[in-house]
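Re-run requested by the PI after the first attempt was lost when the workstation crashed. Everything re-entered from the original request form. Ligand of interest: nicotinamide-adenine-dinucleotide.
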Amino acid sequence: MHEEVTALNPYHMAVQQFEAAAEKLHLSEDMREVLRQPKRELTVNFPVRLDSGRIKTFTGYRVQHNVNRGPAKGGIRYGPDVTLDEVKALAMWMTWKCAVVGIPFGGAKGGVICDPKQMSPAELERLTRRYTTEISIVIGPHSDIPAPDVNTNSQVMAWIMDTYSMHEGFSIPAVVTGKPLSIGGSEGRNDATATGVLFVTRQAAKRIDMPLRGAHVSIQGYGNAGAIAARLFHNEGCKIVAVSDTRGGIYNESGLDPSAVLRHKQERGSVIDFPRAQRVRVQDVLEVPCDILIPAATEGVLTAANAGRVQARIVAEAANGPTTPEADKILFDKDTIVIPDILANAGGVTVSYFEWVQDLQSFFWGVDEITKKLEVIMNRAFSAVAEKADQYHCDMRLAANMQAISSVAEATQVRGIYP
Ligand code: NAD
């Protein structure tokens, strides 16, 4: 029962991870209470006119977990399964993520319960503009800055920026990141999450003397994080042996061509039926023979039920919350290096931070400068977490959480409790 609850409820999972780190840090119960709960949870129910003329009411959320280190920051996801508990978990992970890479943001997340695959672009635009209006009481360039997540992209961010700006009467690009370049987006933002995953995987591979050239890589999820990771790891000399999306997976032990798979997905709506590959089930890509596994889809996919069958030596979590606490133990006991989400996928929020800074200054940097700055931040964070894991003989998730939670606790402590 316990296992099922944690696998299914991301917030329970996030709290369990928090408690483990708080315990190890000997954090006081008072401080734990402050950090365990989100600061603010907004639920909005709002009507949208569909193309048919019908009016449908949607439910959306914006949760701000903690803002002691800076304005809240976090993506917005669209999906039929979005829940408040999922958004709360993702907001908490954002707080720790920003702290672990040392960027001056707190954590937030948003979501709307909808099925974007069943909606027209015009319906998605009206939904986005109305949702933005509803949450505009809590977002802003100095208070809470959204970004893309599952089923949202740079076009959705452009609609958010435009809607918010229309209300204010002038353009405010810094209200949201992950925008198109033409309206204040940043070079490198589109690839940033996957680029960060590559940087920390290089470091992890070095620790076990595993060359990336020739390494076999399996990826769950073929969207922004997964498809770009496939391209970057392929360019690094890795063999992408398996990938999947919601409809299924494909496997070829001699390696897949990531660009051809992406074209196939764009034309056919899925990676399945890609020529010269064996069809496998969605969950099989987690268990195929490979050196590096990149979960890049959703939460709770590595559980007590399948972690024992993971063959990879490195699991680099591009997705948020893919591994349950039970699976973490199994993987740690097998000496699998799990580079935890709050570290592995922090490249996205780091370049979002660069985008925000550039927007506030109206002064834009080149892609080389951005990639260099990102690499410095990711490598520094990886080293600090790996050192802590060695010091405490623990897995990298616990080490990363300890690192992050102590920094947020310190900020909370030094600011004091108002009034
Ligand atoms: P996306 O919508 O671009 O892509 C998601 C992909 O996962 C799609 O290919 C979809 O088919 C697949 N997918 C969804 N549910 C699945 C399931 N149950 N099984 C198999 N495949 C499934 O989203 P994204 O932006 O790439 O985000 C993916 C993950 O990465 C999420 O956990 C997100 O929070 C995390 N992340 C994204 C960013 C970013 O910058 N986009 C940053 C940090 C973390």
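Saved to the shared folder this time. Residues 282 and 325 are 21 Å apart (CA to CA).
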